[in-house]
Specification:
The chain is an alpha/beta fold and about 140 residues long. The chain is built from 6 helices and 5 strands.
């Protein structure tokens, strides 16, 4: 089974490094970008999940998400300091699938990553393990 590809778009180098280390320890392949423009250049058909900051220099995360949605249905998880309810709603309306405010726990981030990837893999029909586990419960 191929490693799932996570595109991490975050301007804070310390957060980028911490999240990369966490995800790589869970056997994910992580590509990093420090702004929206370079993140869009790294986005590919192989990308399984995008983790995206909102407040970045140049292109904002909201604008980046809107551009991603023009070409892909890949799950987008906003990871940002903007924590007001209205900020979360704006992020979800811009095309985000989930939203986690900073400061965040690595355990919660990892749980959200796994949940988004599980649903995306089922959507794409690529998660045979989930299908095999569900097989006894499916009606024939």
């Amino acid at each position: 089974m191929k490693k799932e590809q996570v595109l991490l778009i975050e301007d804070d180098a310390d957060i980028r490094e911490g999240v990369r280390i966490l995800l790589e320890s869970e056997n994910y392949c992580v590509e990093e970008a420090e702004n929206g423009k370079s993140g869009l250049e790294l986005l590919s058909d192989e990308t399984d999940l995008v983790i995206l900051d909102i407040m970045m220099p140049g292109m904002s995360g909201l604008r980046t998400c809107e551009e991603i949605r023009k070409v892909s249905n890949v799950p987008v998880l906003f990871l940002t300091a903007k924590a007001q309810e209205s900020d979360k709603l704006i992020g979800l309306m811009a095309g985000g699938d989930d939203y986690l405010a900073k400061p965040f726990s690595y355990a919660e981030l990892l749980g959200r990553v796994k949940a988004l990837l599980r649903r995306y893999n089922i959507y794409r029909g690529r998660n045979n393990e989930v299908r095999e586990e569900a097989e006894p419960y499916l009606r024939r």
